[in-house]
Design a protein that fits this description.
Layout lengths: L2 H14 L1 E3 H8 L3 H13 L4 E3 L2 E3 L5 H13 L2 H11 L8 E4 L3 H4 L12 E4 L2 H9 L3 E4 L3 E3 L4 E3 L1 H8 L3 E6 L3 E2 L4 E4 L2 H12 L1 E7 L11 E5 L5 E3 L15
Parallel strand pairs: 4-5, 4-9, 5-6, 9-12, 12-14
Antiparallel strand pairs: 1-3, 2-3, 7-8, 10-11, 11-13
């Protein structure tokens, strides 16, 4: 599977609603058989529907809601694996853990069986499904579904989070600015993250290096509000100071 090629296909079909094998092969410098294999794989994931000469979005619109999350999963895939491996070092046996609905937090799940008797509380729909595969004790925040992110939000989610004290929270956001602001474009997701941070002994931002130096309109918190930043790179080697208290 070529994840970068499939990511391009999904981004294109999300905008155009229809793609052809010939145009994709030309744009991606790939053979037509390779493109057909990519389309077949994406169809198996119920993301697209193949038609003669190409593919279209499913008429139900379900795939249009799922594709943005899948694209996020594909972005910085290697970085997210490295961050997950680092994150698990902060987890101890018997811990209670908050995970937000980000794809970065989702990638921690395969490493959780390394620990014993942990409990995970999450606002992520895909995380709930993945956790069940590993037979990990899991609690859903409940709440209103935000389809574009497969995230649970709203008052019910806040109330569930406030009923618990977690040992550690892992979350992500769109940007970490040079002056120490954590920001995103989704205020609804940020409010859930703020509750998780407030109810945790420790809270760590999972931040791929490509997000550093970016700032978006909605403030999540500042570096003073969290325990640390986990990235795929050594933050001490960067040409600016991003430090936590």
């Amino acid at each position: 599977m070529n994840s970068e090629r499939q990511k391009h296909i999904l981004e294109k079909i999300l905008v155009q609603k229809k793609v052809t094998v010939k145009e994709l092969a030309r744009e991606l410098y790939a053979s037509e058989p390779s493109i057909r294999r990519d389309l077949a794989d994406l169809e198996k994931q119920n993301l697209i529907k193949r038609v003669h000469g190409g593919a279209i979005l499913e008429e139900t619109g379900t795939s249009a809601m799922k594709i943005p999350f899948v694209i996020r999963e594909m972005e910085q895939a290697d970085a997210k694996i490295t961050m997950a491996q680092k994150a698990v070092e902060y987890i101890k046996d018997n811990d209670v853990i908050f995970l937000d609905a980000s794809s970065s937090a989702y990638n921690i799940i395969p490493y959780l069986p390394l620990k014993n008797n942990i409990t995970v509380i999450t606002s992520g729909i895909k995380a709930l499904t993945k956790l069940s595969e590993y037979n990990i004790k899991t609690i859903s925040t409940g709440g209103e579904l935000l389809p574009s992110c497969l995230s649970l939000i709203g008052d019910e989610a806040y109330q569930t989070i406030e009923r618990f004290h977690a040992d550690v929270a892992f979350f992500s956001c769109r940007g970490l600015s040079y002056d120490g602001y954590l920001t995103d474009i989704s205020s609804a997701e940020n409010y859930v993250r703020q509750k998780m941070i407030a109810r945790s002994k420790q809270a760590f931002l999972l931040c791929a290096s490509e997000k550093i130096g970016k700032k978006y309109y909605h403030n999540l918190c500042t570096m003073n509000d969290i325990s640390g930043v986990i990235s795929e790179v050594d933050l001490e080697t960067l040409p600016f100071d991003i430090s936590c208290p």
